[in-house]
Write a structure and sequence with these properties.
There is one protein chain. The chain has 162 residues and is mainly alpha-helical. Helices cover 56% and strands 0% of the residues. The chain has a single domain, classed as dinb family like domain (Four Helix Bundle (Hemerythrin (Met), subunit A)), CATH 1.20.120.450. It contains six helices and no strands. The longest helix has 25 residues. The radius of gyration is 16 Å and the shape is globular. The model has no long low-confidence stretch (mean pLDDT 97).
Length: 162
């Protein structure tokens, strides 16, 4: 039986999975590498960061998911902290692969797993695994909004929801 607390998070996670791909739709690596200014991350970096965060979510819910890109983004706070930004094709592939795993596992978490203490602290009052999931799903949305804005700034059509 699915814990009802995870149902809306799962729906939002699935939406975020689609929206990130929609943000990257039609973009090549030249656009992905472009920074709006020297203080702003590129689409390529933000998208790769989301793949890294989705792997973190996988580990939070108990999946075996080593950090992608050889761990190069695991401690990066911005684009200036990485030597090479992954290619958009690698990011798209990595996003699809980890998302299928997370989406499949999320609905199978029981109340004991959801109520367990989160393995690390997140900026949310709920310190459980459920709270960590909620934060990381919101984190997706935060960065997807950035991607949508930068995409338009760089002259691409608006991100689509469909």
């Amino acid at each position: 039986m699915v814990d009802p607390r995870v149902v809306p998070l799962h729906a939002t996670l699935r939406l975020n999975t689609r929206l990130l791909l929609n943000c990257l739709d039609g973009l090549d690596d030249a656009v992905g590498d472009t920074r709006p200014n020297e203080r702003t991350n590129s689409i390529g970096f933000i998208a790769a960061h989301l793949v890294d965060a989705r792997h973190l979510l996988a580990r939070v819910i108990g999946l075996d998911a080593a950090p992608p890109y050889g761990g190069a983004l695991e401690t990066a706070r911005g684009i200036d902290d990485v030597a090479v930004v992954p290619r958009l094709s690698d990011t798209r592939r990595g996003w699809r692969e980890i998302s299928v795993r997370v989406e499949g596992a999320l609905l199978h978490l029981g109340s004991d797993a959801l109520d367990a203490p989160a393995p690390q602290r997140y900026p949310i009052d709920d310190r459980s695994v459920l709270g960590a999931i909620a934060f990381l799903v919101q984190h997706d949305g935060y960065h997807i909004g950035q991607l949508a804005l930068i995409r338009k700034f760089l002259g691409a059509p608006a991100m689509r929801y469909g």
